[in-house]
């Protein structure tokens, strides 16, 4: 069997602040609306193709054309599809380090290589040098998350576009956490012939469980990509839930603002801690480093809180959760600092 760079699924027990999910489940009024819709779903029939209603619903929420959107089983599937489309044996992707682990998984599953440009500890990097090095290496695809997972560092729109113009090959901007930041480049897809943007309902919309993500690119490129995309990627159920949730987009904006405010408040308190270093974040998590990380992880474990641990490094990442969860996190960090 082919050896693929594997990806470990996240732990699902305890207070989960490890996967950048939304801590609260879908609002019960929305759940009720979904329940009312269920009897009319044709469970015996394959989903209709194309999934026009979903494209329209998402396009309306973010403000683009439905014909610029393709939807799939999480943005993971869109990333995998693009990597499979543009790469193969003898070709290589170019990303930054650290970034999202699934890039390695997909490159390895398509027998492609992956080159990484190491960022500073806070996730920042020299854009011009990044472009220069990538060109020297003759890369065939550029991809990175913005805001970055795990650092939370975000590039400005101008910086992203500089990268897009710096390369002739396709550039994928993975905007899984964009709702927590706001400087998206999806509205530039018609202006740059190599620009692809991926988005998701898994983070700000709290719908990681339904697996729904999007790819946004020019109408022309989306038409081609649609023609080759796997049929029936999204179940009827996922489509219905996504459409209903998207009709409540404004309510999700409120929870996103709450998360950002909590993140910034927490960072203000912990940024000068001495036993741990924290980095400013534009996503729904905060990344930190700690020389004595095992003791810190044990302190979280004692309180049944699961945070993301990067094995073999001194890094960890904490998702911004509910008010109570964030309070608990702060108590643990403050106690650790004071020990
Ligand atoms: C940077 C980044 N991109 C993409 C994804 C995948 O999200 P989805 O649930 O849409 O597949 C994640 C999930 O954690 C992520 O962190």
Mind explaining what this structure looks like?
The chain is of the alpha/beta class and 339 residues long. It has two domains: 15-24 and 250-338, Aspartate Aminotransferase, domain 1 (Alpha-Beta Complex); 28-248, Type I PLP-dependent aspartate aminotransferase-like (Major domain) (Aspartate Aminotransferase, domain 2, 3-Layer(aba) Sandwich). It has eleven helices and twelve strands. It has helices at 28-37, 52-62, 74-86, 102-109, 127-137, 157-166, 219-228, 236-246, 249-270, 293-302, 323-338; strands at residues 15-17, 69-72, 92-97, 113-118, 141-145, 171-174, 195-200, 213-216, 276-278, 285-290, 305-309, 315-319. Strands 2-8-7-6-5-3-4 form a seven-stranded mixed sheet, with helices on both faces. A five-stranded mixed sheet has the order 1-11-12-10-9. A hairpin with a 6-residue loop joins strand 9 (276-278) and strand 10. Helix 1 (28-37) packs across helix 8 (236-246). The longest helix has 22 residues, at 249-270. 42% of the residues are buried. Pyridoxal-5'-phosphate (PLP) binds next to helix 3. Pyridoxal-5'-phosphate binds next to helix 3.
């Amino acid at each position: 069997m082919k050896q693929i760079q594997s990806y470990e699924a996240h732990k699902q027990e305890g207070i989960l602040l490890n996967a950048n999910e939304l801590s609260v489940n879908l609002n019960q009024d929305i759940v009720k609306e979904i329940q009312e819709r269920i009897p009319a779903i044709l469970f015996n029939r394959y989903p209709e193709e194309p999934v026009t209603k979903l494209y329209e619903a998402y396009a309306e929420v973010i403000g683009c054309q439905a014909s610029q959107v393709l939807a799939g089983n999480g943005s993971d599937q869109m990333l995998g599809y693009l990597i499979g489309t543009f790469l193969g044996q003898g070709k290589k992707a170019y990303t930054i380090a650290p970034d999202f682990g699934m890039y390695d998984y997909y490159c390895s599953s398509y027998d492609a290589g992956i080159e990484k440009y190491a960022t500073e500890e806070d996730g920042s990097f020299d854009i011009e040098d990044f472009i220069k090095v990538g060109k020297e290496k003759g890369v065939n695809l550029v991809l990175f998350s913005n805001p970055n997972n795990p650092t939370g560092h975000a590039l400005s729109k101008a910086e992203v576009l500089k990268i897009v113009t710096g390369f002739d090959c396709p550039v994928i901007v993975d905007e899984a956490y964009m709702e927590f930041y706001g400087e998206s480049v999806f509205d530039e897809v018609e202006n740059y012939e190599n620009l692809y943007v991926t988005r998701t309902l898994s983070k700000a919309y709290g719908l990681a469980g339904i697996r729904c993500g999007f790819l946004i690119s020019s109408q022309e490129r989306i038409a081609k990509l649609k023609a080759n995309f796997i049929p029936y990627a999204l179940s009827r159920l996922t489509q219905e839930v996504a459409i209903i949730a998207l009709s409540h987009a404004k309510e999700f904006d409120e929870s996103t603002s709450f998360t950002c405010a909590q993140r910034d408040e927490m960072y203000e308190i912990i940024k000068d801690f001495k036993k741990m270093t924290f980095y400013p974040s534009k996503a729904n998590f905060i990344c930190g480093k700690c020389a004595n990380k095992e003791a810190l992880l044990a302190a979280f474990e004692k309180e049944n809180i699961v945070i993301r641990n990067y094995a073999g490094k001194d890094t960890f990442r904490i998702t911004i959760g509910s008010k109570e969860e964030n309070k608990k996190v702060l108590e643990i960090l403050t106690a650790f600092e004071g020990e």
